[in-house]
């Protein structure tokens, strides 16, 4: 079960009306066993729960991508959208969707957090069976390139879930193997490597947190998991079941055993207990943030923005209305390696800015759009995803 379960660029809708809805928890009922309760927003700064986005008691509308029609699911089986055994969640911020998989099923579900409509993505790529704990999908996150990634317990499947022409496509990227230096801290064994969760950085590398507290860096191109250390500062019996990055670029971890949240420095793996609710049973965490993502370190002007963030027509709009906006601003686009790929001047008139920017045939991929004032001060960094 879950307790044995995966730089350059560097909260929450709850009781506070000013919070943002971009950090989520997959929570369970108050029981030692895995029993799904809900997806809810979490204010990790205060350690408190916000709005329940989707619960086990709802009657959702499920649309099958394969059948191109609505379906009625068998709630007595393991493979349905409200299965009790769920431990993998990711947040697709570009489309405002929560993506998840039941542990005992190959089904992928995409929940629109506003409409609560669900798309069922049936696939034959994920090979999950209820009786094989090695095959269970227990780690999932959004990559910096905008795709969803998931890893099963034993690392024998590394899945990429991408969206093309409004359809979801699943690819198996291969088998993740232990780095030669891992020794007894094997990524592929129950005691040291199974379960937990995963996060991504701004270079599209992944960090897997096992339930035992071990942390592994996975470079997708190499398909190897390198042990980088064990979290310190948490109780000896703490089961690490959820991990996600907060707006400060720190890692938040959570447990399925009804324990407190902790904030972890990835460089030192030192954990610090957070205040707030301390008895939540959290099977997974998800957010829109990344390790080493430069965009997370900027405090933007409230009325300055860039849209859309998913670009399919080679244009973005820059909009601003703030008395602090003055003079000529500079817009710079950086690719994922940090290289400047285009620049353009922006003209502000009486604190107002409305301008369309042509992206000059940028190839598909993730970029950071940075806006600076005449003195070079960064006013806004925002990630965009250019698609074909």
Write up what this structure looks like:
The protein has one helix at residues 190-193, and strands spanning 23-28, 36-43, 48-55, 61-64, 69-71, 86-92, 97-102, 108-112, 117-121, 137-142, 148-152, 158-164, 167-172, 177-178, 197-200, 206-209, 214-219, 224-230, 242-245, 251-254, 262-264, 271-273, 281-287, 304-307, 310-311, 315-321, 328-334, 340-347, 352-358, 365-372, 378-386. A six-stranded mixed sheet has the order 5-4-9-8-7-6, with no helix packed on it. The chain has a five-stranded mixed sheet with strand order 14-18-17-16-15, with no helix packed on it. With 388 residues, the protein is mainly beta. Residues 1-20 have low confidence and may be disordered. The chain folds into two domains: 23-287, Neuraminidase; 304-386, Sandwich (Immunoglobulin-like). The protein is 1% helix and 44% strand. It is built from one helix and 31 strands.
Q: How is this fold's topology laid out?
A:
Blueprint: E1 23-28, E2 36-43, E3 48-55, E4 61-64, E5 69-71, E6 86-92, E7 97-102, E8 108-112, E9 117-121, E10 137-142, E11 148-152, E12 158-164, E13 167-172, E14 177-178, H1 190-193, E15 197-200, E16 206-209, E17 214-219, E18 224-230, E19 242-245, E20 251-254, E21 262-264, E22 271-273, E23 281-287, E24 304-307, E25 310-311, E26 315-321, E27 328-334, E28 340-347, E29 352-358, E30 365-372, E31 378-386
Parallel strand pairs: 4-9, 14-18, 25-31
Antiparallel strand pairs: 1-2, 1-23, 2-3, 4-5, 6-7, 7-8, 8-9, 10-11, 11-12, 12-13, 15-16, 16-17, 17-18, 19-20, 20-21, 21-22, 24-26, 26-29, 27-28, 27-30, 30-31
């Amino acid at each position: 079960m879950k307790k044995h379960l995966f730089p350059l660029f560097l909260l929450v809708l709850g009781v506070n009306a000013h919070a943002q809805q971009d950090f989520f928890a997959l929570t369970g009922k108050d029981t030692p066993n895995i029993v799904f309760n809900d997806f809810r927003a979490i204010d990790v700064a205060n350690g408190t729960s916000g709005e329940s986005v989707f619960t086990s008691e709802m009657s959702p509308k499920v649309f099958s991508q394969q059948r191109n029609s609505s379906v009625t699911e068998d709630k007595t089986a393991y493979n349905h959208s409200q299965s009790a055994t769920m431990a993998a969640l990711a947040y697709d911020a570009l489309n405002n969707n929560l993506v998840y998989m039941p542990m005992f099923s190959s089904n992928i579900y995409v929940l629109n957090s506003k409409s609560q409509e669900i798309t069922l993505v049936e696939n034959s790529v994920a090979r999950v069976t209820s009786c094989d704990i090695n095959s269970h999908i227990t780690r999932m996150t959004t990559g910096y390139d905008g795709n969803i990634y998931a890893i099963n317990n034993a690392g024998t499947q590394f899945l990429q879930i991408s969206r093309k022409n409004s359809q979801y496509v699943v690819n198996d990227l291969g088998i993740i193997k232990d780095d030669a230096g891992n020794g007894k801290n094997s990524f592929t064994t129950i005691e040291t490597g199974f379960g937990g969760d995963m996060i991504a950085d701004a270079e599209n590398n992944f960090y897997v947190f096992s339930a035992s507290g071990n942390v592994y860096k996975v470079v997708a191109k190499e398909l190897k998991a390198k042990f980088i250390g064990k979290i310190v500062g948490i109780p000896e019996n703490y089961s690490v079941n959820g991990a996600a990055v907060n707006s400060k670029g720190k890692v938040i971890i959570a447990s399925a055993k009804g324990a407190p949240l902790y904030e972890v420095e990835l460089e030192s793996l030192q954990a610090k207990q957070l205040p707030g609710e301390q008895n939540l049973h959290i099977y997974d965490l998800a957010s829109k943030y990344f390790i080493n993502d430069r965009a997370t370190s900027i405090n933007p002007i409230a009325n300055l923005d860039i849209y859309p963030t998913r670009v399919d027509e080679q244009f973005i709009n820059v909009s601003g209305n703030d008395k602090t906006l003055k003079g000529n601003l500079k817009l710079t686009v950086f690719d994922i390696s940090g290289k400047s790929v285009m620049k353009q001047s922006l003209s502000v008139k009486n604190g107002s800015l409305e301008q369309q920017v042509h992206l000059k045939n940028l190839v598909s991929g993730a970029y950071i759009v940075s806006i600076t004032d005449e003195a070079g001060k960064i006013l806004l960094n925002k990630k965009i995803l250019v698609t074909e």
